[in-house]
């Protein structure tokens, strides 16, 4: 499954031209998939939380691994440097140095947290919804058998 996720992440990075929109979407879908999978195997809550933490960690790591090099390469683009100079107030030479590197690292850390949270919450929500739906249909099935 990780190989498939890596392949889809590469396609998403290429399709969205380096913006993390695609990888965030795919990471959230991976969380939903794992939550539904845990629901179908009737896993207990502790196992589900553990699996969702691992899933979120993997999706967030792959998202950052895809965006970090692109962010560092973007520091060599004049248009990006002009935009960052206007937004941050730093000079162009400092943005190409340690300040720019630190800015990219901080933004990748923020992206890691966003992807981790989205994947984990989406998976837990999918698990909860799957359990609720299964209990609902199980109650209907049980009532139908009594009649």
Describe this structure as you would to a colleague.
The chain is mainly α and 147 residues long. It has one domain (2-126). It is built from 6 helices and no strands. It has helices at residues 2-15, 21-40, 45-74, 78-88, 92-95, 98-146. The longest helix has 49 residues, at 98-146. It is elongated. The chain starts with a helix and ends with a helix. The relative contact order is 0.16. The model has no long low-confidence stretch (mean pLDDT 86).
Characteristic terms for this protein:
single chain; 147 residues; mainly alpha; 0% strand
Task: Give the arrangement of secondary structure elements.
Blueprint: H1 2-15, H2 21-40, H3 45-74, H4 78-88, H5 92-95, H6 98-146
Helix pairs in contact: 1-2, 1-3, 2-3, 2-6, 3-6
In short:
This protein is an all-alpha fold and 147 residues long.
Low-confidence sequence ranges: none
Assembly level: single chain
For the sheet with most strands, the description reads:
none
Shape: elongated
The mean pLDDT is 86
Radius of gyration: 21 Å
Q: List the secondary-structure elements in sequence, H or E.
A: HHHHHH
Tally of alpha and pi helices: 6
Overall domain count: 1
Tell me roughly what share of residues is in helical segments: over 70%
How much of the polypeptide forms β-strand, as a percent range?
Answer: under 5%
SS elements, strand count: 0
| Class of secondary structure makeup | mainly alpha
Q: What is the terminal-to-terminal distance?
A: 44 Å
């Amino acid at each position: 499954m990780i190989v498939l996720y890596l392949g889809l992440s590469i396609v998403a990075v290429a399709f969205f031209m380096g913006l993390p929109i695609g990888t965030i979407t795919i990471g959230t879908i991976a969380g939903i998939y794992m939550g539904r999978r845990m629901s179908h195997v009737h896993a207990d809550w502790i196992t589900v939380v553990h699996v969702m933490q691992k899933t979120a960690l993997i999706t967030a790591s792959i998202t950052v691994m895809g965006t970090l090099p692109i962010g560092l390469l973007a520091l060599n683009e004049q248009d990006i440097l002009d935009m960052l100079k206007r937004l941050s107030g730093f000079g162009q030479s400092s943005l190409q140095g340690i300040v720019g590197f630190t800015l990219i690292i901080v933004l990748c850390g923020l992206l890691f947290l966003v992807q981790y949270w989205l994947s984990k919450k989406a998976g837990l929500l999918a698990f909860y919804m799957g359990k609720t739906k299964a209990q609902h249909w199980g109650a209907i099935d049980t009532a139908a058998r009594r009649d």
